[in-house]
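--- STAGE predict ---
source: upstream dedup step, 1 unique chain passed
mode: sequence only
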Amino acid sequence: MMTATVATAQAAEKGKTEKIAQPEPDAPTAPPEPKPEPKPEPKPPKPKGPNPSPSPTPPPSPTPP
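--- STAGE serialize ---
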């Protein structure tokens, strides 16, 4: 009887530890992912033009005329 109780306690502890270990790495991995996503979003709108190089060239062209 004592052995059955120990086995159950070990199984319960193992299950609890496994479940806790999963959410721990998930939490720190989730926050960093959403942060880098919003940063690259504002950058793509600039190169949306014809090309990243011609983008800065067009402004000086309309300035002389």
